[in-house]
């Protein structure tokens, strides 16, 4: 039985068990409380003592207001630990830095948004409304650590729990719990100098949200000193409903200067700062920093500006001597990862795509390869744990199918790397957290048929208990709409050149009339480091369900350049974006043309961000296939986007100006023949609104008619219920007017 058949049968059985309801899904309901996905926990963590699992959960009356909860493993009871309203219930005020940080993290909400455990498991730490709170699990009380007009961010416990650290006004502070004394560890932060903070491209493109790291023995911290003075100032407007803010943003557009970045160490008393010599070349990236367990050596990853060289270097904080442990190179680019793990003997686990697929390798402490741990034409997602005592490496990956994520284990010895053992049982998508004693794991699971569930398992996969069964019973918020819920069909197509298999997902109206032809909306992202066709539940699918219920066929296809398929699938986009991606989407539409229920004269496309770019490129370059399109927050000229992302895929403009020109939407505007709607948030600090204003002018100069919707105050993620409802109503109304389903 194929995966595609299993998915269809699973969802079909789930829906067949439900009673028939007549409520019709609305856009208003999609973005209202309670969530249609059910009330499922997020930010799950095992306590260090193994006695509880903690998590954040939205309030029933406000799914975006989060409280801190626990599940006690002894008595199997859920308990509210901290009600965020008890700490602070008024409107929250965030610093501009914290607003930007959350936008980079793609998190939205209020209340308790993040937390950390002390090393002994007796306390929790969390920021709220710009201050720091310490919660004692033994006393069950919360204590306010800071009460300042300034904002504290990036709050951490020290490894042994003796200190609390945070960033205030661009400097690192340490608060000693025993004495209540606060120390400022760096002094020159402010203005263009940021200590212990991650720069824009690190947050947005490297997945690094911090800029400082405690040594395991708590005696020193490593940190990055960021000097933004070389970065050009982008003067832009943030347009709100009642005001226009003139923003001077240090935005590193491709081909321009990045920040100057330095790596340093500081002792916990703040008496001595020592800078690490990272070499004569200063136009570099430092994407990752890690301490070795002995606290005497620090490692950092040195990445070249063109992202074709990555070195793992070690630095001895006493002798100040350095060694290069390993070097990765590529003719295209090197994807970053978080899969470096040091073992007790100083050896380490490392991930590499050197054979075309991301796999795990074991190195000696001097950087000599000991063994390849995983191997095959599939990719590892992430390293989860290393059980040295029993000799197992645990990781998530795609050994069974690229459409699902599972937990696997492989011998630390490297024996038979082609034969890894799957641990998770159910078909679908698993996000796993393994306990510190390697005896159990938490499974945050979903499938196309089942909203997220959280369960506790033995390390061998045996189910122990539910933390959140989230069963689709009569009490579930989704149940009133299940009678009209549509199961997708999964399949694959050969690319036009025969070089790749392209996976797709197809939704059809449940009440299709024989002989009738239906309009199609192709929902697209199409960019790197993303995947849309998976056996996974997702809130983005609610709009798809709504469209299907309005009489649309909805189609999604992962083109080349997207994630989890290996480098041969990713690299064809190098130095020319919007080319092979469009070709592959056309392959999908050619398949749609073969389906008797598809009206090929009513095929539209919709996407946001890179998907917005793809919507423009398909409408401009493939108007014979796409008759109407919606482009959200699109990049229109890659010269306007940031260094780390753009140069990774297009190289430096000086080395590939022709590729930049060909990847821009502007050479193809004359090809527009169908209806086009463009929307953009007017305070977008990621894909700058300039992308759309430049498009507006070019379209007007070409006498091309189009529709435009702008959102005052909205950033790139288009947050907020009112914005979401209006935006999606606008999109649906646009397609209804042109396709009349």
TrEMBL record:
Keywords: Signal. Pfam families: DPPIV_N, Peptidase_S9. One of its GO terms (molecular function) is dipeptidyl-peptidase activity. Residues 1-22 form the signal peptide. One of its GO terms (biological process) is proteolysis. Residues 544-740 form the Peptidase S9 prolyl oligopeptidase catalytic domain. Residues 126-451 form the Dipeptidylpeptidase IV N-terminal domain. PANTHER family: DIPEPTIDYL PEPTIDASE 9, PROTEASE FAMILY S9B,C DIPEPTIDYL-PEPTIDASE IV-RELATED. This is S9 family peptidase. It comes from Thalassotalea euphylliae.
